[in-house]
Design a protein that fits this description.
Layout lengths: L22 E12 L6 E6 L2 E4 L4 E13 L5 E8 L5 E9 L2 E11 L3 E9 L2 E12 L10
Parallel strand pairs: 3-9
Antiparallel strand pairs: 1-2, 1-4, 4-7, 5-6, 5-8, 8-9
Length: about 140
Protein backbone atom coordinates (compact mmCIF):
# COMPACT_ATOMS: atom_id res chain seq x y z
CA UNK A 1 0.00 0.00 0.00
CA UNK A 2 1.49 3.37 -1.01
CA UNK A 3 2.15 5.89 1.73
CA UNK A 4 0.02 8.99 1.76
CA UNK A 5 1.88 12.20 1.21
CA UNK A 6 1.98 14.17 4.39
CA UNK A 7 1.46 17.86 3.86
CA UNK A 8 3.84 19.91 5.86
CA UNK A 9 2.27 22.81 7.62
CA UNK A 10 3.85 26.09 6.80
CA UNK A 11 5.12 28.02 9.74
CA UNK A 12 3.09 31.15 10.24
CA UNK A 13 4.75 34.28 8.98
CA UNK A 14 6.16 36.41 11.72
CA UNK A 15 4.62 39.82 11.68
CA UNK A 16 6.27 42.80 13.15
CA UNK A 17 4.35 44.14 16.10
CA UNK A 18 2.55 47.30 15.14
CA UNK A 19 1.90 49.84 17.83
CA UNK A 20 -1.53 51.28 17.23
CA UNK A 21 -1.78 53.32 20.40
CA UNK A 22 0.44 55.59 22.39
CA UNK A 23 1.02 55.71 26.09
CA UNK A 24 1.24 59.19 27.54
CA UNK A 25 2.57 59.88 31.03
CA UNK A 26 2.36 63.27 32.71
CA UNK A 27 4.19 64.03 35.94
CA UNK A 28 4.28 67.13 38.12
CA UNK A 29 7.57 67.60 39.93
CA UNK A 30 9.66 70.17 41.72
CA UNK A 31 12.41 69.68 39.14
CA UNK A 32 13.37 67.48 36.19
CA UNK A 33 16.97 67.07 35.08
CA UNK A 34 18.51 65.48 32.00
CA UNK A 35 21.62 63.56 33.04
CA UNK A 36 24.38 64.41 30.57
CA UNK A 37 26.07 61.02 30.90
CA UNK A 38 23.19 58.58 30.73
CA UNK A 39 20.77 60.85 28.79
CA UNK A 40 18.07 59.82 31.26
CA UNK A 41 15.62 62.17 32.89
CA UNK A 42 15.81 62.47 36.68
CA UNK A 43 12.56 63.51 38.33
CA UNK A 44 12.68 65.05 41.81
CA UNK A 45 9.78 65.91 44.10
CA UNK A 46 6.68 64.37 42.53
CA UNK A 47 3.43 65.85 43.82
CA UNK A 48 -0.32 65.94 43.32
CA UNK A 49 -1.27 68.33 46.13
CA UNK A 50 -0.32 71.95 46.71
CA UNK A 51 -0.76 73.08 50.31
CA UNK A 52 -1.35 76.73 51.16
CA UNK A 53 -2.21 78.69 54.28
CA UNK A 54 -3.99 81.50 52.38
CA UNK A 55 -5.48 82.43 49.05
CA UNK A 56 -4.57 83.79 46.65
CA UNK A 57 -1.11 82.28 46.58
CA UNK A 58 1.63 82.06 44.01
CA UNK A 59 3.33 78.71 43.49
CA UNK A 60 6.94 79.70 42.72
CA UNK A 61 8.05 76.90 40.37
CA UNK A 62 7.31 73.38 39.20
CA UNK A 63 8.00 71.29 36.12
CA UNK A 64 5.57 69.39 33.93
CA UNK A 65 7.19 66.27 32.46
CA UNK A 66 5.46 64.56 29.52
CA UNK A 67 6.54 61.23 28.07
CA UNK A 68 5.00 59.91 24.84
CA UNK A 69 5.77 56.21 24.36
CA UNK A 70 5.28 54.60 20.97
CA UNK A 71 5.81 57.48 18.59
CA UNK A 72 8.58 58.56 16.31
CA UNK A 73 7.10 61.67 14.79
CA UNK A 74 7.43 65.17 16.14
CA UNK A 75 4.13 67.01 16.58
CA UNK A 76 2.69 70.27 17.77
CA UNK A 77 1.67 70.20 21.40
CA UNK A 78 -0.33 72.44 23.67
CA UNK A 79 -0.25 72.28 27.43
CA UNK A 80 -2.82 74.17 29.50
CA UNK A 81 -3.64 74.50 33.20
CA UNK A 82 -7.26 75.22 34.06
CA UNK A 83 -8.64 76.32 37.45
CA UNK A 84 -11.52 74.55 39.24
CA UNK A 85 -13.81 77.30 37.88
CA UNK A 86 -12.68 76.55 34.31
CA UNK A 87 -10.40 79.57 33.80
CA UNK A 88 -7.24 79.00 31.74
CA UNK A 89 -4.28 79.98 33.93
CA UNK A 90 -1.36 78.80 31.83
CA UNK A 91 -0.70 77.85 28.22
CA UNK A 92 2.38 76.50 26.46
CA UNK A 93 2.61 75.74 22.74
CA UNK A 94 5.57 73.89 21.28
CA UNK A 95 6.74 70.64 19.67
CA UNK A 96 7.16 67.16 21.17
CA UNK A 97 8.47 63.83 19.99
CA UNK A 98 9.02 61.60 23.03
CA UNK A 99 9.66 63.98 25.94
CA UNK A 100 8.71 67.45 27.04
CA UNK A 101 9.85 69.29 30.16
CA UNK A 102 8.13 72.59 30.80
CA UNK A 103 8.87 74.82 33.77
CA UNK A 104 5.93 76.78 35.17
CA UNK A 105 6.81 79.88 37.18
CA UNK A 106 4.67 81.87 39.63
CA UNK A 107 1.35 80.18 38.94
CA UNK A 108 -1.34 82.28 40.64
CA UNK A 109 -3.79 80.07 42.54
CA UNK A 110 -6.95 81.90 43.59
CA UNK A 111 -9.16 79.00 44.68
CA UNK A 112 -9.09 75.66 46.43
CA UNK A 113 -9.94 72.51 44.56
CA UNK A 114 -8.92 70.40 41.59
CA UNK A 115 -6.90 72.05 38.84
CA UNK A 116 -6.63 70.33 35.46
CA UNK A 117 -3.57 70.07 33.25
CA UNK A 118 -4.54 69.21 29.64
CA UNK A 119 -2.33 68.01 26.80
CA UNK A 120 -3.24 68.33 23.13
CA UNK A 121 -1.13 66.72 20.40
CA UNK A 122 -1.60 67.83 16.79
CA UNK A 123 -4.69 69.75 17.89
CA UNK A 124 -6.41 66.80 19.58
CA UNK A 125 -6.89 66.30 23.34
CA UNK A 126 -4.94 63.19 24.31
CA UNK A 127 -4.18 63.26 28.03
CA UNK A 128 -4.71 65.10 31.25
CA UNK A 129 -3.64 65.22 34.84
CA UNK A 130 -5.00 66.93 37.90
CA UNK A 131 -3.58 68.43 41.05
CA UNK A 132 -5.43 69.68 44.10
CA UNK A 133 -4.92 72.89 46.05
CA UNK A 134 -5.66 72.35 49.75
CA UNK A 135 -5.74 74.91 52.54
CA UNK A 136 -3.87 74.00 55.71
CA UNK A 137 -3.70 75.68 59.10
CA UNK A 138 -0.65 77.80 59.73
CA UNK A 139 1.16 76.59 62.81
CA UNK A 140 2.47 79.06 65.32
CA UNK A 141 6.26 79.09 65.60
CA UNK A 142 7.66 77.17 68.53
CA UNK A 143 9.61 78.94 71.26
CA UNK A 144 13.31 79.25 70.62
CA UNK A 145 13.01 79.19 66.82
Amino acid sequence: MPKKAVKKKKAPKKEKAKRTDEEINILLADQVYLDSRSRKYLVAGLFQFIHTTKLPTQYPRFTVFVEVVGTVEERDCELTIVSPAGKKLYEFKGRIRNYLTQDVFNLLLKELGVYRLNLNLAGKPVAGRSFTVVQIEQKAPTKGH
